[in-house]
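I'd like us to work through together how a protein chain folds, taking it slowly. We need material for that, and I hope you will provide a protein of your own picking. Go ahead whenever you are ready, and we will take it from there:
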Amino acid sequence: MAPFTTKYINFNPLKFSRMQRNYFSILFFIKKTKLLKNGEAPICLRITVNGKRAEVQIKRSIEVGKWNAKKECANGKERKYQELNHYLETVRTKVLQIHRQLEQDNKPITADILKRRYYGEGESPKMLLEVFNDHNKKCRDLLGKDFVLGTVLRYERTVRYLSEYMKQAYRMADIPLKDITDEFIRGFEHYLKTNKPCSQNATVKYLKNLKKIIRLALANHWIVVDPFFEIRLRQTATNRAFFLEEEIKVLMNKEFTIPRLETVRDIFIFCCFTGLAFSDVQHLTAEHIIRGVNGEYWIRKPREKTDNMCNIPLLEIPRMIIEKYRNHPECVKGGVILPVPSNQRMNSYLKEIADVCGITKPLTTHTRRHRDFYKHQIINRLYCLLIKGGNDKETSELLYSTLFCHFKEPLCLLQR
């Protein structure tokens, strides 16, 4: 057999300016000083990268006299020696393939890494749901510090939808991150719109959650190609309604015989007079109610979503609502101001209320933030500007215009 000593130079173009070279060589040899019980010498493989060596035991041996050190193979035409030489070539090819794969993935190459990969100890591919669940666990650990419950629940819901999608479309429980393509993402988008079903804007939110994991994988060099590169996530504009004074009066004057509808109506009206979001009202406690130097009551509370501090004057109607539910069992048990149900139940009950009151506009926990204020709430408008900042320019502009679209009173009224 012809002599074969492998000496390769691994040239990384990313480091071309530094002119760095990785010298790589493979050498088979026998250990004459450590003979086995049968008198044969064990055959070893030496991997050298940049002068650093690592030895691999290939679990083969040969008589010392039958080994050709120059050709790195066995001498002899017997079948066992031919099979041994064929096995040595198989080992050599495997190491070369491992080296080539590391080069293609632009990963670090050392003699020890090649040795571990040969033994099958290399890192297993990162899986999508595995990484996503680890991300969600870290988010839960930071709950109340860097993340709010709603955000964490949305991340966890995205994992559940991804799991259902892969089982339906790919018949698999998880997928390696490196196997995610734009086709996979577009398929997930179609699944959300047809199986859940989600609107365009809701679908974009879930895709953004997935994109965050992809960015995390790119930052950690788990993948080298961004599957979102040619995908543009666009949200559609929505026509948001707000309530007029007459419509809020209808809600306030309506008498309900069902206690749960009355409670939800009161909470909705409280939100209208304070401008607080659903999550903020849900977590509103007595410590958030303070009294100013002039004896007036205020709500001072950081927003759940942005952590921005709110300073909102507590007017007569919301104070009456607070007093009404002061001794409510759920308020006493939870230490909160109002017995706020879940967001889903709240919106469901609000639909019932809208039907009873003959209101055709969509009545939800978010719509009540876009409403026309009473004339006697002019002072409250100025302070509510502090809590009306949206997460995007469109929302901020809409909220700002909502506050002042009917601002016709002269400024002298503010002094009263």
User: Anything to note?
Assistant: Strands lie at 6-10, 22-30, 41-49, 52-62, 67-68, 73-74, 289-291, 297-302, 309-313.
